[in-house]
Design goal:
It contains one helix and eight strands, in the order E-E-E-H-E-E-E-E-E. By secondary structure, it is mainly β. A hairpin with a 2-residue loop joins strand 4 and strand 5. The relative contact order is 0.37.
């Protein structure tokens, strides 16, 4: 079975150049915000691979119960449903990518570890195929739900032109 483009691994043939490695810790103060990670490419590449993930995906039970209990009265007038109905509570982060002023795409997927592949011929689901040209790129972390401390790791690599 062919791998889905969003799970691209080890299929690049050229020389792979590490371009960025980053770890960021987010807290509940970052809930529902967006964080830009600038990426400047000094030259063009055949393809770009972004490996990223976050941990934990599941909010620890004691924190989850607190957040749920606080939210229930806003959504359920009168008798409140049980907190357990809404467990587990998850942290949800997604990624968007832009090349200079051009939107390349996003994939709002719940997987806590993802590999995104970009090239002129094909790209991962949710992303447009595009030339990987020199210049300013931007990776944006979309912090939809951060209800506990979350560690994000990101590695970006480029495949040199053939």
């Amino acid at each position: 079975m062919a791998k889905r483009k969003s799970e691209w691994r080890g299929t690049m043939a050229g020389n792979i150049i590490p371009l960025l490695q980053k770890q960021i810790i987010f807290t509940t103060m970052d809930h529902q915000t967006h964080v830009k990670v600038p990426l400047f490419l000094e030259k063009s590449y055949q393809s770009l691979t972004i490996e990223w993930g976050y941990d934990p995906q599941i909010v620890p039970d004691i924190q989850a119960r607190k957040w749920i209990a606080e939210a229930l009265p806003r959504y359920f007038p009168g008798e409140l449903p049980k907190v357990e109905t809404f467990l587990p509570l998850i942290n949800l982060l997604t990624i968007s990518i832009a090349q200079a002023e051009n939107y390349v795409g996003c994939r709002h997927h719940k997987a806590p570890a993802q590999v995104i592949y970009l090239s002129e011929k094909e790209s991962s689901e949710g992303f447009l195929p595009c030339a990987i040209t020199a210049g300013q790129w931007e990776i944006q972390l979309n912090l939809h739900s951060v209800r506990s401390d979350v560690a994000v790791t990101m590695r970006v690599s480029g495949e040199e032109m053939a």
